[in-house]
Design brief:
Strand order of the largest sheet: 4-3-2-5-7-8-11
Shape: globular
Largest sheet: 7 strands, parallel
Distance between the termini: 16 Å
Structural class: alpha/beta
Length: 323
Amino acid sequence: MSRASGALRQLGAVPVPVTGPIAGLTPGLTPGLTPGLTPGLAHRHAIAPGLSSDPTLKVALERRTMDGQSGSAGSPAFAGQGVLIIGGAGGIGANVAERLVAAGARVMIAGRDEARLAAVSSRLGCEHAVCDATSFEQVDALFDQAIAKFGSLVGAANLAGSIMLKAAHQTSAADFRSVIDQNLTSAFAIVRSAGRVMRSSGGAVVLMSSTAGEVGLPNHEAIAAAKAGVSGLVRAAAATYAPAIRVNAVAPGLTRTPMAKPLVSSEVAEKASIAMHPLGRLGEAAEVAAAVVFLLDPANSWITGQTLAVDGGLSRVRPRMKM
């Protein structure tokens, strides 16, 4: 066994619990309706019961159509619009918030660490709120707070989560519940609240999946279950809330953030991790953040139900073998 493969095996045998924005794991079409076709009649069996007759649906579609036309004319799509970022104080989340603020959005970041949130919001000039994303009640209150502050939301992203690498037989019930809560329950809570308050105005929800949910990696059983669940949630929610709310996810590979730092704590582990990615390097927080903003952007309103891999090819491409 090589030193690199031995390092990965050792890494996989030890749990690495981390909280914060997900960083991934190691190993100008304008929306609208066809003229003469109404939301209640168009693809009636594809629209969830209760949405096809929703009187707010037409308002959401008309608003999104106007937003798309505005964006195509060159005005900033996010200018003056409210966006909520859960997990907004970490490496990826802060980068997402910074990009949105620069685009003119009115941003609220949320998470559990008041001090880190305050530091980021002070630097960027955005709002912040403390919230445990695993609590349905707290997430509901957070969305209500954002709506009260901004009037409406055009986007919400959940970047909260954790990493734990353990084989299934080494994973306790408490370990498993924690991984599911921090990664899947939080995602469901955000979709649930967004569905409640964003149906009338329309918008986009972006969740964080992972390469581990797309390809089999050793010692990733718990996180793979959680992240595969996120990707399934994306598809179902996209079907339920279309056409008012778009729902997508980003699935990163190993990305350089504070949360992922323990995974590449040694030179050998870092080299082994890099070798798994066909592009020959680890990802940067800015690259994942750019994908999140892309999916939130009202200008990209023809995309829903997708999990976008931003992983250096890890999930789809076999690395070149060195002979």
